[in-house]
Amino acid sequence: MSASNQDGHDEKFKRKAISVKEGQAKILSFVGKGEQERVALPEAQGRILAEDIYAPHPYPHFRRSGMDGFALLSNDTIGCSTDKPVFLEVVDEIPCGSLPSVSLIPGTVARIMTGAKVPDEADAVVMFEMTESTESQGKAYIELKREIKSGSNITPVGLELKEGDLILEKGRRLSAGEISVLATFGIYSVPVIKRPLVAIFSTGSELLGVEEPLQDGRIRNSNTYMLASQIRDAGGEPYILEAIADDLATARQKVQEAFVLYDMVVTTGGVSVGDFDIMADLVSGEDVDMLFNKITMRPGSVTTGAVKDGKLLFALSGNPGACFVGFELFVRPAIGTMLGISQPFLKEIQATLGREYVKVNNFTRFVRGRLELEEGRLVAYPAMLDESSVMVTIKDSDVLIVIPPSSRGVQPGERVTVLQLPGAR
Ligand SMILES: Nc1nc2c(c(=O)[nH]1)N[C@H]1C(S)=C(S)[C@@H](COP(=O)(O)OP(=O)(O)OC[C@H]3O[C@@H](n4cnc5c(N)ncnc54)[C@H](O)[C@@H]3O)O[C@H]1N2
Ligand code: MOO
Ligand SMILES: [Mg+2]
Questions:
Q1: pTM of the complete model
Q2: Which ipTM did the prediction report?
Q3: Rounded to an integer, what distance in angstroms lies between the CA atom of residue 286 and that of residue 159?
Q4: Which of 12, 25, 96, 128 is the most core-located residue (most Cβ within 10 A)?
Q5: What is the pairing mode between strands 219-220 and 207-208?
Q6: Whole-angstrom Cα distance, residue 51 to residue 105?
Q7: Beta strand 219-220 with 64-65: parallel, antiparallel or unpaired?
Q8: How high is the pLDDT of residue 10?
Q9: Angle CA(63)–CA(181)–CA(32) in degrees, nearest 5?
Q10: What is the rounded CA–CA span in Å between residue 66 and residue 113?
Q11: Cα atoms in the 13 Å half-sphere on the side-chain side of 21
């Protein structure tokens, strides 16, 4: 007997398709913002900042030498030239990290290293290469043959940031530049949004573990690992749970348990109309409130969204291409919104189609493809194999090319919108 008949639901056949935008809007209306936590700076990579950060002090906070050379009073160099050199006495040495030990008076200079604090009286630094060192009566002098402009080679206080400047806005993803700022301002304990914990279930009696030997009629479970990678990339923390064989009662129980422990549940497989498509039955039952079970898109027309006590369930297709696209269009924005990212959708750009795409469909297609820069134009090439069931070309794609419903397809040279896949290869 089919899983569907056992449960008395045949809702899965009567589906009302909604658009991608409508589906996304439904999802986002149920997404709450994640809680905060603090992580140590070395662990902050890729995390989303939870608070605005203001500069606690100016940067730099002291006048800094930009060269290895001599700090001087520029007035002492007025009128000097090759014919009329000036001799200035070296009265101090300031390595990086040390403070000047004497006050400079006219006629004196301090030897200073790049990054060291410039004496208050000095208004310029001249690099070693522009000076000659001499000695007279046991005293060290430099000989200068040109005028030095006031301000030369001195980085003023607050050149980069003034005290109180907004330096990093909340919602920002932390990478090298942000981490450098946090380190500069002594922020080791970084306020970030907690990563949503996302449970992954695969469904299907055909699935073998990745390390199991191949068997006829069965395949290894690739979607789970693909999804875990997508979840991590989107800023979530994936939890791979034991695969569910095609049994509705077990699926129900496991999904309910997952809702208690995790912030979101993602499943793959079993959402179409097949006899063992248990997820389709599960979402049309009492366990969850179904938001949609059909989207006017390909692949992934059976992408399903549901909610239970404010937590989202995404039942993605089992076909790898559809599973991938369903994640990118629905799950990624949901995770992004939980993290407080202001624009959680794939970035849209305009390109020219590089090769015809003539498969017709009355749903919008999201065709995996590659973006190339050719003579200053962005050209999008659809993958040669783009069927929903095809796995191998996902790795070669950096965009999803949006092909609107049409009976004639799209010709090379026509404008298309493409959605940029994150972490473009
Ligand atoms: N009569 C109809 N049949 C189908 C329809 C339809 O409208 N009417 N839709 C087709 C479309 S479109 C898609 S997409 C698939 C959706 O299938 P399901 O989401 O129900 O997924 P399954 O039936 O479980 O599996 C489909 C396919 O994917 C393979 N699979 C499943 N899980 C994994 C995994 N974890 N890793 C790798 N591959 C996986 C599975 O073996 C099947 O080959 O339905 C069409 N049928
Ligand atoms: O749901 Mo299927 O992926 O449209 O081909
Ligand atoms: Mg199926």
A1: 0.91
A2: 0.98
A3: 62
A4: 12
A5: parallel
A6: 47
A7: unpaired
A8: 64
A9: 150
A10: 8
A11: 1
Distance CA 333, CA 344 (A): 5
User: In the block, which residue shows the tokens 């794609």?
Assistant: 397
Quick check: CB of 319 below 6 Å from ligand 1?
yes
Pocket mutation for ligand 2, best pick of 301, 328, 387, 403 (most atoms within 8 Å of C-beta): 301
Give the Å distances, CA to CA, from 324 to 307, 366, 388, 391: 21, 11, 9, 9
130 neighbors 22 (Cβ within 8 angstroms) = no
Please give the Cα distance from 287 to 308 (Å, whole number): 8
328 close to 226: Cβ distance less than 8 angstroms: no
Strand partners, 284: none
277: nearest Cα among 248, 299, 254, 250:
248
- Which of helix, strand or coil describes residue 230? helix
pLDDT in tens, 341-358: 989 999 999 999 999 999
For residue 422, cis peptide bond before it (omega within 30 degrees of 0): no
The pick from 247, 272, 316, 392 for probing ligand 1's pocket by mutation, whose C-beta has the most ligand atoms within 8 angstroms, reads 272
The pLDDT tens digits for 17-56 are 999 999 999 999 999 888 999 999 999 999 999 999 999 9
Calculate how far, in angstroms, residue 425's C-alpha sits from the geometric centre of ligand 2. 25
DSSP H or E stretch at residue 257 = helix 248-261
- Would you call 247 exposed, middle or buried from its count of C-beta atoms within 10 A (0-12, 13-18, 19+)? middle
Class of domain 3-35+195-338: alpha beta
How far out from the chain centre does Cα 217 lie? 39
320 ligand 1 Cβ < 6 A: yes
For domain 44-57+166-193, give the CATH superfamily. Answer: Molybdopterin biosynthesis moea protein, domain 2 (3.90.105.10)
Is domain 347-420 annotated with CATH 3.40.50.300?
Answer: no
Q: Length of the chain, please? A: 425
Question: How far apart, in Å, are the Cα atoms of 101 and each of 104, 120, 340?
Answer: 9, 11, 50
Q: Which ligand 2 atom is the nearest neighbour of the CA of 302? A: 1
What residue segments make up the domains of the chain, in order of their start? Answer: 3-35+195-338, 44-57+166-193, 64-155, 347-420
> What is the 387 CA–ligand 3 centroid distance (Å)?
15
Q: Nearest-CA neighbor of 170 among 54, 27, 40?
A: 54
Q: For residue 334, report the phi and psi dihedrals to the nearest 5 degrees.
A: -70, -45
